[in-house]
Design a protein that fits this description.
The complex is a heterodimer of chains A (323) and B (503).
Chain A (H helix, E strand, L loop, with lengths): L2 H24 L7 H10 L1 H15 L7 H17 L4 H25 L4 H20 L4 E2 L5 H8 L1 E7 L2 E6 H19 L1 H11 L1 H6 L4 H27 L1 E2 L7 H13 L9 H20 L4 H26 L1
Antiparallel strand pairs in A: 1-4, 2-3
Chain B lengths: L3 E10 L2 E11 L4 E5 L6 H8 L7 E6 L2 E3 L4 H6 L2 E4 L11 H5 L7 E2 L3 E2 L1 H14 L16 H12 L10 E5 L7 H16 L3 E5 L3 H7 L2 E6 L2 E7 L5 H9 L18 E10 L2 E9 L3 E5 L6 H8 L7 E6 L2 E2 L5 H7 L1 E4 L3 H5 L6 H6 L7 E2 L3 E2 L1 H14 L16 H13 L5 E5 L7 H16 L3 E5 L3 H7 L2 E6 L2 E7 L5 H9 L5
Parallel strand pairs in B: 3-10, 3-11, 6-9, 9-10, 15-22, 15-23, 18-21, 21-22
Antiparallel strand pairs in B: 1-2, 1-4, 4-5, 7-8, 11-12, 13-14, 13-16, 16-17, 19-20, 23-24
The chains are: A mainly alpha (323), B alpha/beta (503).
């Protein structure tokens, strides 16, 4: 195996290791601790769930720009229902169902009506975002209307005992993210459904001519992405014990970036869920480490963007060299 | 001294030679025919002239001076004008803008488009073809296909003082034209010849070529085989030159006569451009479909595969009514399909071989129809790969890493994965090397032994005669006649495709 092949295969992982080493060296006391890592997993659990859902549509070569506003809307829907006194189970159910339906609408627009995913989901982004503002009256829903049981969920977790004299626990949000990742892994890697999605991404015409029900699968895939966005919105609402019509807006670009980072790790440039997990971790670690180093948040944005560009550029450049 | 001479032109795509030893000379003031069967290399040669494809080797001389054609722009500057087979128009813009596509627009004050001059010049180009019923300001989308072709043609006759036209290359220019329109084009071409210009003319319409052209160069298997004056050559000589070798040796012998029992019964089927068509097919029989390109072969196959809605008619498969609404329905009913475009329609090049092979039978090759069983799947794919004599490093190798012939075997393995009752083949050996071709023919024969019925669409006449029991000749969107393949001559079959029965 030549150095070029190694770099192409493992370049992103090596970069990740370098980032870890850098923070470990500069933050010797706080970075490489169980507490910090559990904190990181909790911080990025929402992004993890959305990126997992995004992976499903990106396997087919599509993407969904509406996940951020779908997450915001689902938080608002939950907040409004809570304020109206509905029980938690019903509220959560309605919010998740809403995400599923919104995603299915994306699917219908893309596969049955034939609108480009960029246009369809961009329009959906605007609609869902507007709906979130209308429902909430543009205000943050918080305080007494959010039941304590709902917001306590995000603060709870499974106790893992004492590490270095400090009590640590596996946060519930991290567990949710792990469950979602596992479910998407089973779906994409272990089922005929996932295989067919990869077939569509490989060659949509050949898949169709091989009997794959392309339209139906696309619809289901978009619906699942919408569902994951709604779940992330609920997680966010639970974590901050409030709902705000813009609180999911950062998720979409980061989720797409995470999947892209993951794609640089595959020989064929195909999205894989476990690679997406690495992509999310890279983004999460960067955010965590740079914050601890007190790097200004705007400079942080510039750095994160530059690193994404670097990884994707290096990957496509090394692929071009091979020809 | 010739106006244009090409020698030693060679071009290989990924190691597969498309052109070897090609020589062509064109004189000033002649209409020169370029003849050959599909896949003989005419298109590649034209692309080299157009600067679209870079040859591996080529000695090109214009007026005796060595020349290279590095880009379409250079070809244009040399005075070459092209009318391509697939006419590409932009429907959303005006006729005049289409005529000026890729050319410099006339300007006012150096920056603003001079629309008046643009439309007037485009009008002149149309008038050269005697076209007065098309307004240059009209939107392209509002024209009929025939009129669109006329517009494309006239763009070649746009007068350009900076780069005067010297050679017109016309690839099937009359395919979408009426007789009157064709005649008008011929008058223009003859005028060009009288004025000292040259035309390289490609057409499958032999009569047209013989009446119009001064000389002909015939290509076969990527090489030029002969050049001669049209006056010295007969129709039959020309066909013989194009076909070249004898059929027979390259095909495995049919061991048994077709088994009894009707596999497929098609009654008055119409779909798309396909007009009312009837035929039946016995188990174990191979029915060939011959015809000039675009005679309805593709529509027939696509309708039988559920990709093109059946407008009317009935189809019976193994005694049961068969009316597929999607390829998925077709696979379920036991109909398999090897599409014409292997890379764009047949394969997922970036996926492993086994995923390609099992895709159509994934439901059966999984646990409860839902959960993948990769190991069993790979065993299943390996067995099928052995059946089709696939040469690969294993079922996990990527399909895109295989040679053209082995890629086609993967497509065949997929088609055979469900033991279909009916196998639809659309140009199954196009771009496949000789060795793999024989393997593919053997696979087809083996399958018919087991009672599978096969429909074989091909533009390779020896292949049809060598492989089929009967051959249906399609003309103008319908089956014109069905003839037994045994003892059929290639020239006879070609003549039938052209609609002329040999004396």
């Amino acid at each position: 195996m030549t150095i070029a092949t190694l770099l192409r295969r493992y370049g992103t992982l090596i970069g990740f290791a370098l980032i870890l080493g850098f923070f470990w060296f500069n933050l010797p006391d706080t970075f490489m601790t169980a507490r910090n890592w559990l904190n990181i997993t909790q911080q990025l659990s929402m992004l993890m769930v959305v990126a997992a859902g995004m992976t499903i549509v990106m396997v087919m070569g599509d993407f969904d720009l509406s996940v951020g506003s779908a997450a915001s809307l689902s938080g608002i829907v939950a907040g409004v229902l809570f304020a109206a006194g509905y029980p938690i189970w019903m509220t959560v159910g309605v919010a998740l169902l809403g995400g599923l339906v919104g995603g299915a609408i994306n699917g219908v627009l893309v596969s049955f009506i034939g609108i480009l995913p960029f246009v369809a989901t961009l329009a959906m982004l605007t609609i869902l975002s507007g709906a979130a503002f209308v429902l909430s009256g543009g205000k943050t829903i918080s305080g007494a209307s959010i039941p304590a049981d709902f917001s306590n969920f995000a603060r709870g977790g499974i106790p893992l005992g004492d590490i270095g004299g400090v009590a640590v626990m596996l946060p519930n949000l991290t567990i949710v993210a792990l469950v979602v990742v596992f479910a998407v892994w089973v779906l994409l890697e272990q089922t005929t459904f996932g295989r067919r999605l990869y077939a569509i991404g490989g060659n949509i015409e050949a898949a169709y001519l091989s009997g794959v029900a392309v339209r139906r699968l696309k619809l289901i895939a978009f619906a699942l992405t919408g569902l994951s966005a709604a779940a992330a919105g609920l997680m966010y609402a639970s974590r901050v014990a409030s709902a705000n019509p813009t609180q999911g807006s950062g998720l979409m670009l980061n989720a797409i970036a995470a999947v892209f980072l993951g794609m640089t790790m595959s020989e064929q440039g195909v999205p894989r869920i476990l690679a997406t997990v690495i992509g999310v971790l890279i983004l999460g670690v960067l955010d965590n480490g740079l914050t601890q180093l007190s790097v200004d948040s705007y400079i942080r944005q510039v750095l994160v963007g530059a690193i994404i560009l670097l990884a994707v550029a290096a990957s496509s450049f090394s692929k071009r060299l091979r020809r | 001294m010739s106006f244009l001479s090409l020698e030693n032109v060679a071009k290989a795509y990924a190691g597969v030679p498309a052109l070897r030893r090609v020589a062509l000379t064109i004189e000033a003031g002649e209409i020169h025919a370029l003849m050959g069967e599909n896949g003989a290399g005419k298109s590649t040669l034209i692309k080299i002239l157009a600067g679209v494809v870079a040859p591996d080797t080529a000695d090109i001389r214009i007026d005796g001076k060595p020349t290279t054609i590095g880009s379409p722009h250079e070809a244009h500057r040399l005075g070459f004008r092209f009318i391509h087979q697939e006419f590409n128009v932009v429907p959303a813009i005006s006729v005049a803008e289409n005529i000026f596509m890729g050319r410099r627009y006339p300007l006012r004050a150096g920056v603003l488009v001079d629309w008046r001059a643009l439309n007037a010049t485009a009008g002149d180009a149309l008038e050269k073809l005697g076209i007065t019923h098309i307004n240059p300001r009209q939107r392209m989308a509002r024209l009929s296909p025939g009129d669109q072709m006329l517009v494309r043609l006239s763009s070649a006759f746009l007068s350009e003082p900076d780069a005067p036209a010297r050679l017109y290359v016309m690839d099937e220019p009359t395919a979408a034209l009426t007789r009157d329109e064709s005649e008008r084009l011929f008058r223009v071409l003859r005028q060009i010849r009288a004025d000292g210009g040259s035309v390289l003319y490609v057409s499958h319409r032999l009569d047209e070529v013989m009446a119009l052209c001064d000389r002909a160069t015939v290509m076969r298997d990527g090489a030029t085989v002969d050049t001669g004056r049209m006056a010295d050559i007969t129709h039959d000589d020309l066909v013989a030159l194009m076909i070249g070798r004898k059929a027979g040796d390259a095909y495995p012998a049919a061991a048994t006569t077709p088994t009894s029992g009707t596999a497929l019964e098609v009654r008055d089927l119409a779909a798309g451009r396909l007009r009312s068509t009837s035929f039946s097919l016995r188990r174990g029989e191979i029915l060939g479909i011959a015809g000039l390109s675009g005679s309805g072969q593709r529509e027939l196959v696509r309708a039988l595969f559920g990709d093109l809605p059946m407008r009317s008619g009935t189809v019976t498969l193994d005694g049961k009514p068969y009316r597929p609404f999607s390829p998925a329905d077709a696979w379920k009913a036991g109909v398999a399909y090897v599409p014409r475009e292997r890379r764009s329609e047949g394969l997922m090049l970036t996926r492993p071989i086994f995923e390609n092979i099992t895709l159509a039978q994934l439901r059966r090759q999984s646990l409860g129809g839902s959960f993948l069983t990769p190991r069993a799947e790979q065993r299943f794919a390996t067995t099928l790969a052995a059946d089709v004599r696939l040469r690969s490093t294993g079922p996990r190798q990527l399909a895109g890493q295989l040679s053209g012939g082995n890629q086609q075997k993967v497509v065949f393995a997929k088609a055979l994965s469900g033991n279909p009752k009916l196998l639809l083949l659309d140009e199954p050996t196009r771009g496949v090397d000789v060795g793999a071709k024989f393997d593919i023919y053997t696979i087809i024969r083996d399958m018919t032994q087991k009672g599978m019925a096969v429909i074989l669409v091909s533009s390779d006449l020896p292949e049809l005669i060598g492989m089929c029991d009967r051959i249906a000749v399609m003309r103008d969107g319908a089956i014109a006649e069905i003839v037994p393949a045994k003892g059929l001559g290639e020239d006879d079959l070609l003549n039938r495709c052209y609609g002329r029965v040999a004396a």
